[in-house]
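Let us practice reading a record.
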Amino acid sequence: MTTKGVVVDVEKVEMDTVFFQNRSVEIRVKFADNWLFTKEDSADLFRPFQGKQAVIPLDGPFFMAVDFRRNLDGSFDAHPMYLAIASIERS
């Protein structure tokens, strides 16, 4: 399955929220608790990636990928993480 995505920076991590940004978009993702992780645990997963790049989808189900590689044609392959999301704000 192919999903169009955009490369963003992991800008900031707060208690249960991660902020992503690039030149054209700012996205705030607030996590929810689920059977596997608390919302704080989900946000903490991104602390080591602050200042690094991630991939998020342009459409479809929301995911975040911090492990990806760019192909020769400019596209990229990503290994997505699907976590419980409470809200997503784009600006």
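A brief commentary: The helical segments are 39-44.
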